[in-house]
Amino acid sequence: MNVLDWARKVRAIAQNGLMFTHDEFDRERYEKLQALADSIVSDELGLPVEQVKSLWQYDPGYVTPKVDVRGAVFEADRILLVRERSDGKWSLPGGWVDVNDSPSEAVAREIYEESGFHARPVKLAALFDRQRHPHPPSMYHIYKLLFLCELTGGAARISNETDAVEFFGVDSLPELSPGRVTRAQIERMFEHHRQRELPTDFD
User: Fold this and answer.
1) Cα radius of gyration (the chain)
2) Could you report the per-residue pLDDT of 112-139, keeping only the tens digit for each?
């Protein structure tokens, strides 16, 4: 990674930390991390620190949707689901795409972090506009990328976001986390699993 890639990643981690933390000491650490990234970019590009800071804070382009990736991993004819600690309901493993990650890298990472399984994305099965599907309302405009993935290793393991990991048949799906995935979307992943030649679904 070059210096700008590194700084972009560090600043994204710090900004995400500032958004979620409730601890004043953590907030101070994240702010110092942002300042450190600004200082390094300033030295690298020969720009004043205040100008570097303003470059991060001002985006002259269009505001664009956030990107959520989900992985459909199958064992025989059962699909991998994880139970979310936040609402006690089940979902395809996944989450936000991090800065400098490709969508396929992000979904493989999310699957491992949330379930303990290693998987390889083999097909973009669907690209959905979240607001065109029966999810609860969200403050953000979100695109959902659903990947068909092959199981390559690992073992079931819970995480700080998930408290259960299981495979389910299409006729025995548990209560789903509606903000993350719908029953119709999971049923469509079964169809893609059984018919690999199906084209990518998109809105």
Assistant:
1) 19
2) 999 999 999 999 999 999 999 999 988 6
